[in-house]
Amino acid sequence: MNALAIKKGSSGKSAYNLRNPLGDHQETHTLTVLVDNEAGVLARVIGLFSGRGYNIDSLTVAEVDHLGHRSRITVVTTGTPAVIEQIKAQLERMVPVYAVNDLTVEGQSVERELALVKVTGAGEKRVEAMRTSEVFRARVVDSTLESFVFEITGTPEKIDAFVDLMRPLGLEEIARTGVAAIARGA
Amino acid sequence: MSRQMTGAQMVVQALKDQGVDTVFGYPGGAVLPIYDAIFQQNDIRHILVRHEQGATHAAEGYARATGKPGVVLVTSGPGATNAVTGLTDALMDSIPLVVLTGQVPTFMIGNDAFQEADTVGITRPCTKHNWLVKDTDKLSETIHQAFHVATSGRPGPVLIDVPKDVQFATGDYVTPEKSSTGHYAPRTKGDIDLITLTVEALEKAERPVLYSGGGVVNSGLGASQALREVVAATNFPITSTLMGLGCYPASGDNWLGMLGMHGTYEANLAMHDCDFMLCIGARFDDRITGRVDAFSPNSFKVHIDIDPSSINKNIHVDVPIIGDVGSVLDDILEVWTARGRKTNSEAVAAWWKQIETWRAVKSLAYKNSDSVIKPQYALERLEALTKGHDRYVTTEVGQHQMWAAQFMGFEDPHRWMTSGGLGTMGYGLPASLGVQIAHPEALVINVAGEASWLMNMQEMGTAMQYRAPIKQFILNNERLGMVRQWQELLHGERYSSSWSESLPDFVKLAEAFGCKGIRCDNPADLDEAILEMLAYDGPVIFDCLVEKHENCFPMIPSGKAHNEMLLGEASTQDAIDVSGAVLV
Ligand SMILES: Cc1ncc(C[n+]2csc(CCOP(=O)(O)OP(=O)(O)O)c2C)c(N)n1
Ligand SMILES: [Mg+2]
User: Fold this and answer.
1) What predicted TM-score, i.e. pTM, was given to this entire model?
2) Of A48, A67, A102, which marks where a domain is finished?
3) Is B490 on the interface with A (CB under 8 A)?
């Protein structure tokens, strides 16, 4: 019976389009969730993750359609393929959710994060911090005689790299927005 | 045309427009305006329970018995928190409930006002959806939307929190027809390619099994009808979960009995050895699968479920069909009929021969006694003496629940109400009350354990007040029997706190409530005592003193596979190892 030929992907909605859910390796996925911008909707999504033991690596939310009262939540999560599929199914069945997209599997996407990085110091370190920021195309948005606040945008990896370089140069404080992501193309 | 009315009047009007005839509730400060509106009308009947948990379970019983959503009205704070167990129970068992809670006035929210609780926060994980309504103009539409959400897709409980000032204020009433139901619209029609694939597999199957569940009940009578047609036309064996009993009649030739932890030998072995499994509105719960990696290792699995998140959650299936089981079964029949209704009947006949050898094991057999009432015997007699009646059975949670599932036969859906997913002791008595309110002329029996029954026994007062002649059939083993059984099998017979000490005299208790009490401890007197219970026109508390240390078999211990089932006392020696003991 198991030899029965299965037409994979026989329909767009078919779960045959799922990747092998039996793998037990961890994967990181970026999901975007379009929701009604109603009271408690973020708590609902976060509660789903904490209640069912899923990971949240990063989460951002903001209204994207004022007239339609819709917000977009971008969540980066890590889990086995089966858990990722569960997360999507659990999100999709929530009443205020319009759509869930998995940017990691649905073709190419662009991911950006913004960070504000405060660095203090004087002398050679201060000069070095300034030089590094230019390489990373970070902007100085505030400066005093003993400090800079840099604004940097890019992929989370780029921001990680910048922050690592700033550490020995007097890194004081970091504020990160979390990831915003969008599919490429039309 | 919109009509102006107060929020409290809107609640009543919206319930009427939704076809509600009964509300189970308990008043308090934050819902007084709604109670005032209820007082001034006659279309909706309010049943005053004795505890808000009772209201939720009664509403669940009502919903399960009618197919309509159950409606609950409670006050803020403690009223709402007392409803949490019932909400969780309904969520786990997919029972449609609409629960209205009062809330402190909007301008006091967040001030730790008297009887304030963050009701939407507390109930967010135990409802399908919930709303805090801060504007009277939005109230009626929210209520209509709540009914839509509770009853469409996979049914479940919803909650609407209504601050007191919103109840007093005046606003525009919107009728259900004029209300937007929002964008919530779960898919009900199954994918036709996947249905065709299912039919292809069904035609070739050599060792098929149909595994049905509570989704068939929820889908409506048409689904049970279609299921029966599939069974009759294919001659495939059929089993069911605890939640799905009655969708296929227990008297039917193809019935294998219930499956799972306390299911029959033939049902579980058929699941284990089959080559084609059609799961219809069930969810591969851990009570069903046993050890997941040993679950039905050689079968081609098709899963029909309206909730996509149930698919591939515990068991990976070959064909996932998202849709309403009634609609999908109809489509399967249509496609199969168009292809000439073929099955591999020779192979299926050989499969039945194999199943007969498993049936011959008689896994539900027990050792009867002349001196003491065996719980299984009590239920066999209850079954025999009530079979022909227009009968509904509810249960509490424990050994008695499993024995009721094993020894009572259900011929139709909506006749059996039990707490499956949550396993809530205290469910059965209020649920039986809700069923009786829905069907005043029917025979409604709650098969109870003495310990569970005490958890919501206050609802006997409600039964007396509303003349609901519910029969409380208590299998009194003076033990938290199921806990004791696990302690016997898993914890070296150390019976830690599993004895029901200082029990009340149930007959006197019945008298105190003003109803009838019957006690029976002799097998020879049992039939007469049951007949006396049936003949009494009013609520009865039947104290049936049974064997204290009877174990419920068959049993698949946690962490074991279907073919590692324990059949009786002799097979229990060292049957459960340490890895099983950590599971529940
Ligand atoms: C509210 C609640 N608390 C605890 C449990 C755990 N539990 C499951 S069965 C059981 C014993 C039930 O005893 P009884 O009602 O007398 O039924 P019996 O097993 O003896 O038939 C307990 C404590 C539960 N299911 N629900
Ligand atoms: Mg007991």
Assistant:
1) 0.94
2) A102
3) no
